[in-house]
Structure formats: C-alpha cells, structure tokens
Design a protein that fits this description.
This protein is an alpha/beta fold. The protein contains 9 helices and 10 strands. Strands 7-4-3-8-9-10 form a 6-stranded parallel beta sheet, sandwiched between helices. Strands 1-2 form a two-stranded antiparallel ribbon. The chain has a two-stranded antiparallel sheet with strand order 5-6.
Length: about 230
C-alpha cells in the first residue's frame, strides 16, 4: 500500500500524501440545498447545488475507506444572534433574513433543522463538525487546532458555494500554509458563471490559491492506494 499518489490537476499535477490529508466538506446544509429553504427564498435554483451531492457522496465514501479524516462545516449563528454582526444580518431578502422563521426553522440558526447537513451527506459518528459564524471555516472556529492535532497539511476542498464559503476557506487555508486541492464537481454555485470563474481563479497564476481536479481523479488515486506497490 502506498501513501503518496499523483493526481492530474490544474495548473500542475498534484502530489497527494494520504497520511497528511483531510476531506473538508463545506456547508452542505438543508437551508442551502433543499427546495423551500433559505437559498431558494433568495431566488436561487437549488438544483444547481444539488448536482454536487452524488459525486461528493462517492468521494466521501472513498475517503472514509482510505482512512482519510472527513471534516464537515456548517454556517450558522447562536439563537440570540450575538455572533452575527449587523452588517451581515441586514443583507438579503428583507422579508426573510438570518434568524427569521423559515420553512425549516429559524434561518441559519444552530440547532434548527435547516441548519444541519443534508441526509445524503450526514456525518458519521466521530467525524468533526465545525460550526462557523462566517464564510470562512477558520474564522472564529477551532478548525486550525483540529488540523494541527491530526497533522494535516493538505485539504481536499468540497461543498458550497464555490465563490463564497469555499473560496473564502481556500484563501484562509492558503495564507496558513495548507495545500488545497479543490474538487470541481464536488463544489457548487447558484451561478454557473461564478462556478467557472471561481475555479479558474484558484488555479490561475500557477496555482495562486491551490489546485483543481475532479472527483474521478481523486477517487482513482485513493483506490489505487489500496493496491500493493
């Protein structure tokens, strides 16, 4: 069994060490992905995000089989909104903002049904779930400590949305010295043009924020790691 695999990626091939990598699954929450949820209330087509579910489920299964840690994040706030700055609270649809009643409970409030991760991608017992009040997964969370405790140097980045929480997290990770491989069909946006440009920005200028590949390439590498060298 070999720990190091080489994956075709943009802008250059990516060397993956299975012993120092984690799969980061960003904000695959009901409020964003279910019909009738917060995302749809803003006029978005949730079907564009739901295309991520099947390839991400396969990638999660492959990561678990390879013994790679899977870390989930959820964007949301305390019930009293004390961790939600006014500048964030006042944005969006004036009739349905963070903390207001929605179809799946109070919008983006921790503990509400809509705040939790969709059933298809539910965390397994023992997997880390990071609750974050901002777009980035490092801001006001213990993600950095979790990664350090597990000797993680590389992140396989997945989730939604590509141009917001995924991009912010990749930029944060890049500044902290982590290598990020963004899995293109496992990240999604409500806006096809934002999806295209968001991925292009990550790999631009020799990989200014990281690398980009597809799930088939990652899964193939993880599965080949089980074959004796």
């Amino acid at each position: 069994m070999t720990a190091v695999q080489h994956i075709p990626a943009q802008p250059t091939p990516f060397t993956l060490d299975r012993t120092t990598v984690a799969l980061l699954v960003i904000d695959m929450q009901r409020d964003f992905l279910l019909s009738g949820g917060f995302g749809e209330s803003l006029g978005n087509d949730v079907a564009l995000l739901r295309t991520v579910i099947d390839p991400l489920a396969r990638l999660m299964a492959a990561a678990r089989a390879a013994g790679i840690p899977v870390i989930h994040t959820r964007e949301g706030h305390l019930p009293d909104l004390s961790d939600c700055p006014p500048a964030k609270l006042e944005r969006g649809n004036p009739t349905q903002r963070i903390g207001d009643p929605g179809r799946f409970g109070r919008i983006l409030i921790r503990g509400e049904y809509g705040h939790d991760i969709i059933d298809e991608l539910a965390p397994l017992a023992g997997e880390v779930v990071i609750d974050k009040p901002g777009k980035g997964a490092f801001y006001a969370t213990d993600l950095a400590a979790v990664l350090q405790q597990n000797s993680i140097e590389t992140l396989l980045v997945t989730g939604v949305t590509t141009e917001v929480c995924v991009h912010t997290t990749v930029r944060e990770a890049n500044d902290r010295g982590y290598r990020c491989l963004v899995v293109s069909d496992c990240v999604g946006s409500y806006f096809p043009e934002f999806q295209r440009v968001g991925l292009a920005m990550i790999a631009a200028q020799g990989g200014i924020f990281g690398w980009v590949t597809d799930s088939a390439s990652v899964i193939g590498a993880l599965e080949s790691a089980h074959i004796p060298a």
